[in-house]
Structure formats: structure tokens, C-alpha cells
Amino acid sequence: MNNQWWLEPCRVPDETARQAARHRDVQLTKPAGALGRIDALIPLLAALQGRQRPSVERVFVAIFAGDHGVAEEGISAFPQSVTGQMLGNFVNGGAAISVLAKQLEATLEVIDLGVATPQSLPGVRQVALGPGTCNFTKQSAMSAEACERAMQAGRDSVLRAQQQGSELFIGGEMGIGNTTTAAALACALLGCAPQELAGPGTGLDAAGMAHKCAVIERALALHAGPHDTYGWMQRVGGFELAALTGAYITCAQRGLVALVDGYICSVAALCAVRLNPDCRDWLLFAHRSAEPGHLAVLAALAAQPLLDLGLRLGEGSGAALAVPLLRLACALHDGMATFDEAAVAAKHS
């Protein structure tokens, strides 16, 4: 790791734009703070975008896909072949995120970082880090080089988003077994037991959940040691989690707002913030997942998600569902009349 680009400084939010947005907000024809968290959201977006009137019309969605060696331990209700099959579903328009991206008129990019059943599909970017990670109950999930290349894939995606003039970046993921990987990584970073952070994922029953926790415990015992965040990513992480981590840090370094999806994406966000704490300013959190461990990860990030709909699909779908809310918030801020413009009496001083 000769060039640890993820440690480079992040952009500093524009305080002048933040104050300008606040100044406009208090002049709009409504009581101050009447829109609750929407009123608080606009000055933040303004500061991140460096303009009094923010916009999230141009959205870029990147789906990072990778398989997980730990799937051979039987920790998923679905076969590993689903990961590769879903790549075709993404680019053919049949997946939930595909439908949502179309409705949002967002750019959708699909990146194959390494699936167990390699295939060449039109419309899928190939990074090819291998046929999935290794089984982390037996060895490290990936080499340091593979981890760095996965992070670079996330960085490259953000750079493409920025080249298109995108105003909002959404990262999504696909990989059978990745809730186990996310839980193992979160346990390592937060010092929690698997029973606190592991959930049903694709639909495990009680026995499946107990087995999943036992598998994570074995992995944590095997890799026990004073590892830093990068070390834990390498040992129990996944290609797509590393790519998301790289993407979030790059968003902060390049000045692009990132909207974080659910549990797996939030664990990647936790990795990003642990690696480069200043990137936290650039992360908005879309929703609270039904996965039980998500709440602890959100708390560790001091994050207050926009939605709580009981979602657990992944793919970036929850973040996509939150985009209309952000767009409406921007429209309110931009389109409402001021008291002077509407000839409405303002509040008494």
C-alpha cells in the first residue's frame, strides 16, 4: 500500500452557503423550523454543494457485486449463484434498484468485483478481483492488494459520477452472504457480540440465526488481534464493502454528497469514517434497516436516517426511495415565496 489515498484530506463544507440557506429559510412563508428535519437538511445540503439552493436532480447509483467465501458455511437462505444471476437482472431492468433508478432518471452502474460464477454481461463493468472472497472462518477474506483494488473500484465509480455532473451518489451492493460479512466486520469494529449485530439477512430462521452467529464467532476468534480498520476489512470484509468504503471516502474528498443505504452500506460507512473521520460530514443516511444490527451501527455514526420503512432488500433501494424526499425538500426551499414576495406579515420580532 504505497499510496494510501483514502487518508488524504476531505473537502470542507461551505459555511457561507450554509448560512445563506438558513437566511433564506427564515424568510420563507412558514414558521421557522415548521418542516422539522427538512428545515435542518437544506442548510447541510447547501454547505456540501456550496450553493444557497441545493439540488439532487442528477443522481448516480453504483451497484457493487461480489461473492463471499463464508457462504460455504451455509449462512444464507439463497444459493451463491444468485449473486451472478442478479447482475443480469440489474442491467436488464428487472431488479428493484433498476426500476427505482429509471423512475428517478438516475444513472445506474453495475460493477462485478468478483462473483463465484464469472460471466460477461453487456452493461456490467468487470473489475475481476477473483471468484469471491475466501472463507474467513479459515483464512483472511482477501489480500491487502485485493482490498486496495476494491477500494479503488469504489473511488473510480465516484470519479465517473463526478464527470457526469452528478449531484448525489448512491452506493448499493449485491452478494449472497454479505450480511454475515457486514455483521462480522461491525462486531470487530464496535466490540459487539454476533448476537447483537447479526440478523436474518435473506430470511434465516432461529436455527439459521444461531448457526450464523456461531460462524461469526469462529471468524472473530481466528482473526483476533489488534488490527486497524483496514486490517479487519482485509480479514473479514468483502469486495463490495471495501468498494463502498472507498466510494464514500472519495465522495468526501471530491465534494460529492453520498446517500448511504441500509445495514451493509452503513457498515462500509463506518469503515470509511474510521479510516478518514472527516468524511462523515458528506454522508447522509437514507433509512433504518430491519436488520437488528443496523441501529448500533447508526448510533456509532451519530446518524439519523431519513426513513424507517422496515426495509432489508439492499441494492441501494432504500437510498433510492429517499431521493424524492430530498428533491421535495430542495423544491420547497427553492420555490416557496418569502414573506415579502407573498406580502404576508412575518412573525413579530
From TrEMBL:
Sorted UniProt keywords: Cobalamin biosynthesis, Glycosyltransferase, Transferase
GO molecular function: nicotinate-nucleotide-dimethylbenzimidazole phosphoribosyltransferase activity
Annotated metabolic or biological route of this protein: Nucleoside biosynthesis; alpha-ribazole biosynthesis; alpha-ribazole from 5,6-dimethylbenzimidazole: step 1/2
The reaction(s) this protein catalyses: 5,6-dimethylbenzimidazole + nicotinate beta-D-ribonucleotide = alpha-ribazole 5'-phosphate + nicotinate + H(+)
Active site: E315
Broad class of enzyme this protein falls into: transferase
Transmembrane segments: none
InterPro entries reported in the protein's UniProt record: Nict_dMeBzImd_PRibTrfase (IPR003200), Nict_dMeBzImd_PRibTrfase_bact (IPR017846), Nict_dMeBzImd_PRibTrfase_N (IPR023195), Nict_dMeBzImd_PRibTrfase_sf (IPR036087)
E.C. no: 2.4.2.21
Domain of life: Bacteria
Function according to Swiss-Prot or TrEMBL: Catalyzes the synthesis of alpha-ribazole-5'-phosphate from nicotinate mononucleotide (NAMN) and 5,6-dimethylbenzimidazole (DMB).
Family: Belongs to the CobT family.
PANTHER family: NICOTINATE-NUCLEOTIDE--DIMETHYLBENZIMIDAZOLE PHOSPHORIBOSYLTRANSFERASE (PTHR43463)
HAMAP family for the chain: CobT
Protein name stated in the entry: Nicotinate-nucleotide--dimethylbenzimidazole phosphoribosyltransferase
Species: Stutzerimonas chloritidismutans
Lineage start: Bacteria, Pseudomonadati, Pseudomonadota, Gammaproteobacteria, Pseudomonadales
Gene name for this UniProt entry: cobT
